[in-house]
Predict the structure.
Amino acid sequence: MTFDFNVNALISYLRENQLKPELQKETGQVFIVYQIKEFEVPVFFLMRPENSLMQMIAYLPYQLPEKTFGEVARMLHLFNRELDMPGFGMDESAKLMFYRCVLPCWENKIEKRLFNMCLGTTRVVCDTFMHAIGIIATGMMRVDEVVKDQKPREYYTHLKN
């Protein structure tokens, strides 16, 4: 089963799945917002018809201070090394961290099972790892401490402060 590779079809499919899509007027991109604990995680869908690709980009809800660039990059690399579908990255100039998943879209169609798998993976990966990333990004701990401690969720409640 597929749906058409265009903005209107994407919005319709997301609505069918109760995901409340919105259209960002400035960029023409569709996005949804996942609620993960008390954090909002926006997921943007960038359609590239010239390459028959769609990117799902989930922006993690933390600012990235310059002093933590190296530690965050190291943590993202460690996670990507362990993930079956790696996709963590960071944009130093915008001071953002994200998880990206890329979908091939042949013959102007989006395969629903592949789309659902990638979207579900995006949510699970963000839910699983964003807390540890936030601990590193805020400077509360260093990568070695988080890896050694292996209890980053205990520090989760301090991230909003």
Residues 86 and 135 are 20 Å apart (CA to CA). Confidence is low (pLDDT under 50) at residues 152-161. The two ends are 45 Å apart (CA to CA). The first strand starts at residue 2 and ends at 4.
